[in-house]
Amino acid sequence: xxxxxxxxxxxxxxxxxxxxxxxxxxxxxxxxxxxxxxxxxxxxxxxxxxxxxxxxxxxxxxxxxxxxxxxxxxxxxxxxxxxxxxxxxxxxxxxxxxxxxxxxxxxxxxxxxxxxxxxxxxxxxxxxxxxxxxxxxxxxxxxxxxxxxxxxxxxxxxxxxxxxxxxxxxxxxxxxxxxxxxxxxxxxxxxxxxxxxxxxxxxxxx
Length: 206
Known about the structure:
There is one protein chain. By secondary structure, the chain is of the alpha+beta class. It has one domain (about 15-190). It contains 3 helices and 8 strands, in the order H-E-E-E-E-E-H-E-H-E-E. It has an 8-stranded mixed beta sheet. The longest helix has 15 residues, at about 125-135. Mean pLDDT is about 90; it is low at about 1-5.
């Protein structure tokens, strides 16, 4: 559930990885209720036929991005499993997430948050793909994705802290929001949405 067949980089399993996911970063994520992600790519692998071994290749979808804070990579995968409902007031579990670390002691370490959506009807992966296509068509380079979680979820266990990543822990998340934005690449700055960082009232005709 938490891997991709094209993702051949193995997560470290040694205390030397501790330096990336320090206590400040982990606490900041655990105490927040939203993880804000800038999606940079969506990969949709389609397959036909079979391998020479007669097994059929499986199509797959995954998305990649970054967080401004906590300055880490993000990977999004999808599992053909149903959303897990819980008695009120506990929110549903729409997926699971974890901390990862990659790198070497010589070159340094890089952290990644891995989110796996429970997407039995495949509507969530379709929404992310469509939103990112709209962003690229509109001249933007990223798509805004927000992951919602309960406050307090995401702290390291003792064994996680020892290894510097989610050695044993997996955490639920309860919601998401993705912004699909269609607009001309040639808009004047005053015609952009007011919340856009490039918005300016300079030369506005009103």
